Amino acid sequence: MFSVMGGTMKAPDFDYLRPATLDAAIALLASSDGDAMPLAGGQSLMPMMNFRVASPSALIDLADLAELRGISRDGSSIRIGAMTRYAELAASAEVMAALPLFGMALPHIAHDAIRNRGTLGGTIALGDPAAEMPALALALGAKIELAGPDGTRVIDADEFYLGYYETARAPDELIVAIHYPVALSDHRFGFHELTQRHGDYALAGAVVARTAQGHRVAFFGVADRPLRLPALEQALNTNPDVQSALHHLSAIAFTGDVKASAATRQRLAAVALTRALQGMTQ
Amino acid sequence: MTGPTHIFDKPNRYIGQSAPRADAARLLQGRGRYVDDVSLPRMVHASFVRSPHAHARITAIDTTAAKSCPGVVAIYTGADLAQHVTPYVGVLTHLAGLRSAPQHPLALDVARWQGEPVVMVIATSRALAEDACEHVMVDYDPLPATLDAETALSADAPLIHPEFGSNLAWERVVNAGNIDAAFATPGVKIVEREFRFGRHTGVTLESRGTVCDFDPSEEYLTVYYSGQAPHMMQVIFSKHLGLPEENIRVISNDVGGSFGIKIHTYGDEIATAAAAKLLRRPVKFIADRFESFVTDIHARDHVVRARMGVTEAGTIVGIDFDDLTGIGPFSMYPRTSAIECNQVLNLTGAPYVLENYRARGRVVFQNKTLMCQYRAVGHPIAMAICDGLLEDAARLIGMDPVDLRLRNLMADDSYPRASASGMKLDDLSHQAALRKLTQIMDYDTLRADQAEARKRGVYRGIGFVSMVEVTNPSPMFYGIGGAPIASQDGATVRLDAGGALHVSSSITEQGQGTNAILAQIAAGVFGVDLNRVKVTTGDTATTPYGGGTWASRGAGIGGEAMLQAAQALKDQVLEVAAVMLQTTPDKLDIQNGNVTDPDGTKRMTLADLARTVYYRGNELPSDLKPELIATRHYRVTDFPFVFTNGAMAAQVEVDIETGFVKVLHFWAVEDCGRVINPMLVDEQIRGGVVQGIGGALYEECHYSPEGQMLNATMADYMVPMAAEMPDITVAHIETPTKTSVLGAKGAGEAGTGGAPAAILNAVNDALAPLGASLWQMPMTPERVLTALDAAAG
Lengths: 282, 793
Ligand SMILES: Cc1cc2nc3c(=O)[nH]c(=O)nc-3n(C[C@H](O)[C@H](O)[C@H](O)COP(=O)(O)OP(=O)(O)OC[C@H]3O[C@@H](n4cnc5c(N)ncnc54)[C@H](O)[C@@H]3O)c2cc1C
Known about the structure:
The complex is a heterodimer of chains A (282) and B (793). Chain A is α+β, with helices and mostly antiparallel strands and 282 residues long. Chain A folds into three domains: 11-59, Uridine Diphospho-n-acetylenolpyruvylglucosamine Reductase, domain 2 (2-Layer Sandwich), CATH 3.30.43; 69-181, Uridine Diphospho-n-acetylenolpyruvylglucosamine Reductase, domain 3 (2-Layer Sandwich); 188-278, Enolase-like, domain 1 (2-Layer Sandwich). Chain A has eleven helices and 14 strands. In chain A, helix 2 links the parallel strand 2 and strand 3. The longest helix of chain B has 28 residues, at 554-581. Chain B is globular. The A-B interface holds A 1-13, 51-52, 194, 196-201, 203, 257-261, 264, 267-268, 271 and B 47-50, 52, 114-115, 125-127, 129-131, 133-134, 286-291, 294, 657-660, 697-698, 700, 702, 708-713, 715-716, 718, 720-721, 723-724, 780-782, 785.
């Protein structure tokens, strides 16, 4: 939602840079004093520029960075390069086997054209509170690998989302890859998203991962960021009847907007969770 | 009117066939010629600074910084353009009492809605123009705004035009029979509801736009214009820019959808033309999505309190309602913003025998985007009021809604007759349409499925509508009130030297297949293969004079003109052929591009005939003066409108936990008279139904308390999308109108007019066992949940 001042169809002028290596990209970012922005699939960034809500002095295209590509499995963990597109994730037998939640969530993300260009790193970096992948990262306990001028660091997804489109990533850092624990045979997963139209951002969505350690439940589309409720997870661990856990939802500061009030969102979040649990993988 | 009916049963008649449209391949291959594809030498680009306030006094404008931005060619304020453009007022004399204030292309002292253009910046590219807009400084002194139509008439509401003393733009009362006495009759039961219809808009795939090119050597303005009524725009540009009409050429090449959006006077487009004249160079303006949402006309936005009386035995004794609608700060020029309310008053209950009818409509000003005529003007409101109450009444007296309709719909053999509001009606088939509908949908099976689903806790509903659609308007629609809007249309048919037809028409193509049906009519009536007809529309310099395409008038009016012109040319050609073949015209015919004997035996090709006429006239008798071109015009006489009718049904499933409504199937039986191209008519019906579903379930312009539109993006404003749309089964009844030889009525708006009522009824049918009902559109999840909560107590 933007307040209209005038016609906004064309982005303000910007430089386009296409570094060949991760180090070069980080150097460019660092030297721009936060004015430059990384460009991945452009499916969020380009509209923001055309709306003139983002006006970077330069775009640093990540397309040529080999370090940000590839899907590789290392024992109990799978590493997915930040520049991996949604369409590539869906086409990867390895991802589908190791991360059943991806197969459940991907069809809900936008439409084919957007999935052909949008990237995992882009959506993780953007931190849209209604996006699916950040919530998956929370439910799965993913780790986010960042590279910056001072080297590389790995941060838990739980520590990454700080507020409305606000993440723990520093402006001169890039997301290099996301690491997910591979599903074991006794893990069970559930996903449910409520949208009036297929491919829209969720009015409310819930992601559930059940392992020997218990439930991890992440919600999206409900508040200023994707989030987990440890008390609700604990309640589910002790009593599998979802009804007895739903009151914990009141801890969420639900978003209210033209599509649904905060009260309606709470109701829809309860339905999403209930249905996610009903539809758990067998 | 009588005519040569055999034209409908000739071998290559085309009329009635689903011929593929000739322009489909061109458009699919990306070779469309839309306004934004026009690029002229020395062309510059316009961008607008728009009011961020719903209501504000403009105290100062400083363009100094913007003028020195790169690429800037000129900057105009409202005061600058007021010297070159005369103001306009959206009133018509036949809408007695309607008032509106003078409007300027750019706001002068006061901005009256968020998005109103205030300053125009012209630069060498759109991007540079937008850059410079950010440096235009406008000081606003915000004024209290009137936003809610329901409080606009209260004594303390801020006045939008203080000179009027109130925010009332227009009021009309219709009174037939004696509603109070009818409702007081013993045994009559009353249902009463308050309906709310959300404000929504047309969302054309191609946004509004224009390229204006002024040639000072001839004082000649050429306007490339994405729109529906080139001749109307020619008059408007002429009148307000001070140029003779003949010095203005309006060209509408391909138009990517319009739905009534592109038929009005928009300040940004008028300003673009004025700038082209002042700068003496071409200026392009293309509205972006933001601009479209806050400046394209909006529609609906009605609050209606309505009652219906029905006897125990199922006779509807009357309808009584009060409609209040908000139209923004001005009545739109030149069609006015009172037409939608007027249609609601005219059309409510029109399918039914009603002895008693009372309706009041009030149209009020408010500080929101202007409201005006969008596809199915007034119809969704009129149909939802009557058929919503009808199904409510059916529940009250325990009668099936189909039975209640059949008892009250006008009999198919009872025409001509008038509706309770005084509309003249003829050639309608409500009873047959509803019967056919229940057959094709297999009504009894659906009711059984519904009962079975309820046992499983699944709430399905079936809802109907019986409807009329206003089509083929006569001069009584606009012309009578002083609008420069032609109600007649013309067609020209010319035989070229190679035996092909070149036809032109004043109706326009906006994607619905107008050009295709014109070709079918010309080819079929004259007697050539379809691929030998070339069609020109959308150009005031090369087509006959006429109204364009709106109010579902293209096929019925423009098509009849084409039929008459093709028949006239055929008569002329046969006269020449008879001389050449030494026989009489009545012993000849034209079939498949040849002059033939009546049985089809070939005598000569049309090319032979034309070449003789054009190249070797010396072979013809000197007193024979062949005319291988014919023009005819047509207007509807005797009736203000030619009504069509239809019956539609929706099957929905309501998720009572989430409030989500899923449309499972939709059926439409439409009687648009003679069907020229079944495929195109079916797609018009389907597209219309989809837009109707949009209004019923998804689309709404939301405003903040301060008057900011909150969802002016395609991400936040929900149009109906393919994935959610049900199968839409379409069937026809053909009752040709007697007002023309062609017999075609319109079909373009039926779906949009009827679908919302059917969806409303289906949702309420689903909610009925829970004691809940909902009378507000769009029927969003939250509203459904609220209705369920209210019923649960
Ligand atoms: C019509 C439409 C519908 C959509 N629906 C959905 C939906 O239902 N669910 C959903 O989740 N998304 C949806 N999206 C958004 C889509 O998924 C985006 O592609 C995604 O959010 C961003 O990915 P991207 O690769 O396009 O990133 P970009 O748009 O290129 O970048 C997004 C942001 O992330 C930054 N960035 C990108 N990559 C990196 C990196 N490696 N390191 C650091 N910063 C980086 C950019 O600087 C920018 O700020 C929709 C988009 C559209 C246009």
